[in-house]
Specification:
Layout: H1 14-18, E1 40-49, H2 54-74, E2 81-87, E3 90-99, E4 105-113, H3 114-117, H4 126-135, E5 142-147, E6 150-159, H5 164-178, E7 185-186, E8 193-194, E9 198-205, E10 208-209, E11 213-214, E12 217-218, E13 222-224, E14 233-235, H6 242-247, H7 255-275, E15 281-282, H8 286-295, E16 299-305, H9 315-325, E17 329-333, E18 336-346, H10 352-377, E19 393-395, E20 399-400, H11 401-418, H12 423-435, H13 443-447, H14 454-462, H15 467-475, H16 490-510, H17 523-537, H18 543-552, H19 560-581, H20 586-594, H21 600-613, H22 619-638, H23 655-676, H24 680-687, H25 691-700, H26 708-725
Antiparallel strand pairs: 1-3, 1-9, 2-3, 4-6, 5-6, 7-8, 9-10, 11-12, 13-14, 15-17, 16-18, 17-18, 19-20
Helix pairs in contact: 2-5, 2-8, 7-8, 9-10, 11-12, 11-16, 12-15, 12-16, 14-15, 15-16, 16-17, 16-18, 16-19, 17-19, 18-19, 20-21, 22-25, 22-26, 23-24, 23-25, 23-26
């Protein structure tokens, strides 16, 4: 395996650690070396479930940690660290050094002015005595606080904290009920939903068992070992013994340790192949690695081999047979696939030889089927399959895949023209759009849906299509997941954009709008793909244009405006996420979005420029000047003052307003050129020259003059300057320090 790929944690040799069965090395560390505060203990919650989809576990553990932090903080409970662990069979929360009692709650209730309650000698006035009586308090409960309007009395109310062991029966059920899954289940007679049925609950605070009930399950101090190596139920005395007790029952509860163990074993297997003369390496499949990490609790890897003649199959089919059906890793060298695979067994090494032989038999049978399907598919040219798409329904209201194909041909053509592409590119986009869904009706894609687009490219090349058309067919599905590659060809990028915007517009038009964590159509991923492609290509194309052109192809009228609003807001969330990933502050994001986000490429450039500019030491004073200018214009808007476009220089009376106008006119043309070129940092630096003149203007000039002509002309000058700044952001949204 090349250096830098799937790197392992340095330190102990985990293979040696885990070669002793059962192992004796901690699966995760509870603070055993550091003594706990005598007034604090470790809390432990385990949610035992029927097997969750492995793809749901990581998100559930992230939620569990975040929700726990929110709840413990809201309950005023101090702790040292919150961590989560688990697998598809258990979700685990560990709260280290959790205080044994809530912090006391201290509140201030502001009362009347001090002079009402106390006289000059500091004695209670008659009204002060009435105030104490009415509030049911004593003199010692009062304090004095200086506010903007003077000194006021306040009542200091102290609420003692409750014991943690009394609060955990409230917190733990809330925490469990707060978890959300893309697909949830309801079981039994209740109305409780969870990713899979809950089978048991373990809850401890130190050595005390925390009792509560969720979904008909009463918590206890009992857990279970590995589901078939050691399925017995046993009790846990305290959180410190929990990981060791489970370890003896063949369960490694820390996903990070399981991942390290898997990678170490992969390295050992690859090393054995290298000794046999193969320059082998594993085919890295991050999603598969994550899946087996959460699917297993005690992973044991093995090397298997399949019949060599199956190497004639396209490598995507080989990988799909291995990955999608068997959860195996593919092996290759510099020339391509090798007839080996690395499998993951949930369990120890006992009967491993039989496990390997069984997996080889099943895999060879799968590959034989795939080879038959592939040979049969090649007998029909790809373009002759397109009419068959009429029989494949996307959704009743959205029609068939043939209907979608015809929309993509038209939308792809329009986008090609919008981007100014030549006729050759346009024809290739149209051809790729016509063919891109045809592989859905092939036998290989029916068997392996994840190969849609990939097999389309294979069949297109076999049918003699233009290689760029074939590549666009493959790329129209990109990106398929968060870290996936983006389309490299112009044709592929245009078709991918068309496909995703058609899916989004059609779904919103048909009423399939994601809510909460549910997104069965993967629309968030599609919207993310649209944003990433536009940014990668630096395309200046309004979202409103994309939505409008796509909606035209659905025929029905009347809902366009509502769908446009909902879709734009949906995209807004995706843009916010991308800006957050770039380290842009929340106030800066709000400021740039406030003045528009129709042009995705533009809003990101503005946000990045604003973030860079905010690091300048002069920025605070500049923003104060800009905000002062914008606020008075907002006041004028509230008063419904109509501000003319033209600034009349003959109405400029004061030196300061003349100076401001002169500098504005001097920099306006060059600033607009920079703004039009999206050179926002340079444009702002020009505009920042106005800081001093703006401050001087407000110090010496009365904007809201009684003379209407002077008032309107001054507002007009300020409005001209504001319009330049708001090409970048709404600076009133910034929180400068």
């Amino acid at each position: 395996m090349p250096a830098g790929h799937w790197e392992l944690a340095k330190g102990k040799d985990l293979l040696k650690e885990y070669d002793v069965w059962p192992i004796s090395v901690p699966a995760f560390i509870l603070s055993t070396e550091k003594k706990e505060n005598p007034m604090s203990k470790t809390a432990l919650l385990e949610i035992g479930v029927e097997e969750l989809p492995s793809t749901s576990v990581q998100d559930a553990l992230i939620q569990l940690k975040e929700k726990a932090e929110e709840l413990f903080n809201s309950f005023r409970l101090d702790y040292e660290r919150i961590a989560t662990f688990g697998s598809s069979r258990r979700l685990i929360l560990q709260v280290e050094n959790l205080s044994s009692q809530q912090r006391e709650k201290i509140e201030k209730e502001i009362g009347p002015p001090k002079v009402v309650v106390f006289n000059e000698k500091g004695e209670l006035t008659p009204k002060g005595k009435d105030y104490l009586k009415a509030k049911g308090i004593e003199l010692k409960d009062l304090g004095i606080e200086r506010l903007e309007k003077g000194e006021y009395v306040y009542i200091k109310r102290e609420t003692p904290g409750r014991l943690t062991k009394e609060l955990l029966p409230i917190i733990f059920p809330q925490l469990i009920k707060s978890l959300r899954f893309s697909k949830s289940m309801r079981w039994g007679e209740g109305n409780f939903y969870f990713g899979r049925p809950i089978r048991y609950l373990l809850a401890l605070f130190g050595e005390e068992m925390i009792k509560f009930k969720v979904a008909g399950i009463t918590s206890d101090r009992k857990t279970t070992g590995h589901h078939y190596l050691s399925p017995s139920v046993f009790s846990i005395k305290n959180p410190q013994e929990y990981p060791r007790a489970l370890r003896k029952k063949w369960v490694i509860i820390d996903p990070a340790k399981r991942k390290e163990l898997i990678l170490k074993q992969i390295r050992k297997i690859i090393s054995s192949l290298e000794k046999e003369g193969h320059q082998a390496e594993i085919v890295e499949e991050e999603e598969l690695l994550r899946e087996v990490v959460y699917l297993t609790e005690y992973p044991t890897l093995f090397l298997g081999e399949f019949d060599h003649h199956f190497l004639s199959l396209p490598s995507p089919i080989l990988r799909a047979c291995l990955r999608d059906y068997q959860k195996h890793f593919s092996v290759r060298d510099k020339n391509g696939p090798l007839p080996y695979f690395v499998g993951v067994r949930e369990g120890n090494r006992k009967y491993l030889k039989e496990v390997v032989e069984g997996n080889q038999r099943v895999l060879n049978a799968r590959l034989a089927d795939a080879k038959f399907f592939f040979e049969e598919d090649k007998k029909v040219p790809l373009h002759k399959r397109v009419p068959s798409l009429k029989e494949v329904v996307v959704q009743k209201k959205l029609g068939s895949y043939y209907d979608k194909t015809m929309r993509l041909v038209k939308l792809g053509s329009r986008l090609s023209s919008y981007f100014g592409e030549n006729e050759e590119v346009k024809k290739r986009v149209e051809r790729a759009a016509y063919l891109c869904k045809a592989d859905i009706v092939t036998q290989v894609v029916r068997e392996f849906p994840a190969l849609q687009g990939i097999m389309g490219r294979e069949y297109a090349l076999h049918s003699g299509e233009n290689p760029r058309v074939a590549q666009a067919i493959f790329e129209h599905k990109l990106p398929r997941f968060n870290t996936d590659e983006l389309p490299q060809t112009t044709e592929g990028a245009i078709l991918s954009l068309a496909d995703k915007i058609d899916t989004l517009t059609g779904s919103f038009w048909a009423g399939f709008i994601p809510s909460g964590s549910e997104d069965p159509w993967g629309l968030r991923r599609e919207a993310q793909g649209v944003v990433e492609i536009i940014l990668k290509r630096e395309w200046k194309i309004p979202l409103s244009y994309l939505i409008k052109e796509s909606l035209k192809l659905y025929g029905e009228k009347g809902e366009e405006e509502e769908i446009d609003v909902k879709l734009r807001e949906f995209f807004r969330t995706r843009i916010v996420n991308i800006l957050k990933e770039k380290g842009i502050g929340a106030d800066q994001i709000k400021a740039v979005l406030k003045v528009g986000f129709d042009d995705i490429d533009d809003v990101v450039k503005r946000a990045e420029a604003l973030h860079t500019l905010s690091l300048r030491k002069e920025f605070k004073e500049e923003v104060i000047a800009i905000v002062r200018l914008m606020n008075i214009l907002k006041q004028a808007e509230q008063w419904r003052i109509k501000i003319p476009e033209e600034v009349k220089e003959e109405l400029l009376m004061e030196k300061e307003e003349k100076d401001l106008c002169f500098l504005w006119k001097e920099i306006e043309i060059e600033t607009k050129k920079l703004l039009n070129k999206q050179k926002y940092t340079e444009a702002y630096q020009k505009l920042s020259l106005l800081k001093g003149p703006i401050h001087n203007f407000f110090e010496k000039v009365l904007v809201m003059s009684e003379d209407e002509k002077l008032r309107i002309n001054r507002l007009s000058l300020l409005n001209k300057i504001k319009n330049l700044f708001t090409r970048i952001a709404d600076f009133t949204e910034l929180q400068v320090k």
